[in-house]
Amino acid sequence: MILVTLGTQDKPFERLIRAVEKQIDNGNITDEVVVQAGSTKYKSDKMKIVDYFPIEEFDDIINKASIIISHAGVGSIITALKNNKKVIAAARLKMYGEHVNDHQKQILENFSQNGYILKLDDFDKLDEVLLQLKDFQPREYKSNTENFVKNVKREISLLLNVN
Hints:
43% helix; alpha/beta
């Protein structure tokens, strides 16, 4: 099963769901496709599309999925990586009204350059990225939260000592 997750933004992301449906039509995706569409309103008889799954059901779907195709949201990517899933991600772009700015391009670049995910820049080439996924071994995700919290505490201590 393939899970497509489009995020929780209040703007649609039809470009990605259309690209997935095109690959189903072309026979490049034969697995069941489940979509958490968020505010993207899209109808298809080829995919199971739900606005939002309850968290327990979402966790179950992630566990069952062999591939995650996602918008380039940090939460979606990290959730997939923590569950040891192969991820293809695409940035929502301001020019298409998919987000308020293009910050997802940087997120996409950072995660892909570090070997965690495969990025999808050209939606017409999803078939090629799907082929790359077969041999792709994502880098194991390790959270940096503990180090981040330690640094924030250190900075706060320094600020408090200055006053």
